[in-house]
Design brief:
24% helix; 134 residues
Length: 134
Amino acid sequence: MTGAEQELLEITRTLLDRVDQRDAHAYGETCAPDLTAFEPEAKGQRIDGLEFHEFFLTKPNPNGTTVRSEMVSPHVRVINGAGGEPAAGVVVYTRVTQKHRADGSFRLLHCNETRVYERRDGAWKHVHFHRSDI
C-alpha cells in the first residue's frame, strides 16, 4: 500500500469517527465546503454543501447510545495529476455500524460507501460520497 493510499484510509477512519461522535465541527474540517452526496436520507436527491450533514451531526445520540463504525474490505484508488503527484482518491468499503444503547440492547447497520477526496492546497479534502443501505 502506498503512502497516499494509507493516508486516505486514515482520513476515512477519522471521518467515520467524527460522524459516530457527532462532531460536526471536526467533520467539517475534513470536508470541502462544496461537498456533494447521495444518501438514503435524501431520497435520491443530490445534497450540496455541509448544512444537511451538520443538522444530523448536531443531534445527540438518543438514550445514551454509543456508536462505532468499521470499514470492511476497503479498497483505495489514488489518481495522480499531471505532475505525477496524488491529486484525487477514492475509498470504497462496506460500513458496519454498531449502536449500543444504555439498556444493553444493540443494533447493527450495514451500508456500502464510496468516498471521494481531492488534494487541495496540499491537504486531502472529502468532496463527494455515496452511501447505499444494504
